[in-house]
Amino acid sequence: MRINLKFIITLLLILVSAIAAPGTHGLVNGQNPAQPAAAPLIDAYDPAHINGLVFITGNQGKANIFGIRILVYRQGEQIDDSPVSFNFGPHSPNGSYAAVNWVTRLDEKTPVNFRWSRSSQNGVIGQVTASSNVRIAIELYRPWIDTGGVQQQAIFQPQPDRRTILGEQVQNRMTSPANKRFLFKSDRDSAGNAGYEDATAMREMLVKDGQAQQITTADGSGLFLHALLSFDLSTNSTIGFVAMVGDSFDEMEREAIKSLQQPVNDQLDRADKNYQTTRTAGSGASGDGFEALNRIVCWNRFYDPVNRSEYLSPHRTPGRSLNSVDKISGSTVLGWESFLFAAMGAMIDPETSVSTARRILEGQMSDGRVPLRISAGSRSRGEPEVLAGRSMPPIGALGVWKIYLVTGDISLLANAFPRLLKWNDWWLANRGDGQAWRDGNSDGLLELGYDQELELGSLMRAQRTRTSAAQTGIFGIRAR
Description:
The chain is 30% helix and 22% strand. It is of the alpha+beta class and 480 residues long.
């Protein structure tokens, strides 16, 4: 009878899913994922670079992706390109206003402030403010350049005006979505500008010489994998800019000039005021709590370039960029806490909460368990591709249900139900020694079912390494 009931419920949910509106998978404005996004995704999607922005156009095939990151340095000392310590400021879910600040190792008393506003469908205005005793470089790059093992590059070209950098996606241009060109323009002259191939070498130049200097390419094309503008802040500690994607450099140039006719600071002040007067707010502790939740959700929203969707994860990777300056910048993971995070975040960003739950369940293994951690986007570092010997705690059903109560997305339930049922059945299954995975040592307590051999292999299990012993102790169970 139980099998028949499961079968009937599954069929009903699949039928409802077939006629329900498809999930958004992190697209803007609830659009059909089979269609190109009407507006680019723009946010601090690179987990290693809260000090920057990523522009993404297209939601299928090879998306056009451009990145900006802010480098802070002092001549003769060092450079800081991935903040270790930062403070979340206000961040509207739709990007109408956001602000963040961080402290560098160069000046622990004066934070660097970065705020930006989505001023049009395809672009933002931004402002960087820092202490006069440091220097700033704004670098353009292509995040996740080797995603999926396929080189996907953008090229950049600094312009003679020392304010402008142009960029373009170069792979598969005939089949790439619209908005494959990029323009960045500052509101003041830079002290130096350059295009370059080697990001590490450019960082060394900035520290040694104080400003960027152009190095001619072997082919003389003037096209590079990176470009930057460097600024001396001794007389002016603020840098304003406009950045956008589009299809015509001429049209973007005209729009940028028009945007910069008004002081960037004034535009951002207005955006801040508008956000403060229109955001969901409350009084006392409840109001403060909701604003804190909003900031945590919006500043921990990332993009998975492999599955082409946004997701939530409380796993920013501060100070990590130099591990992979151009290759796998900012890989992060989805863990069991992401279910709870998505359930809380549904009232802030329902679309991304839905895509987060889907992404976690897509990592389900053939036996039904959902691994404790799943690498999102780029390959993982220093650990198995999937933590195959362990499962997340059984919180998936609660997380999905809470998300559904907010979103009403029946297609999420249809997608999740058979996966959650299979996961639930795994907890009750015999693990091979007469014990259920949920209670490996027969003490009546729910346990995580760590399978040492599955994760580490028979040879390593036999050696009883300190790692495996520690893992067994952490999870409070007896390994199989």
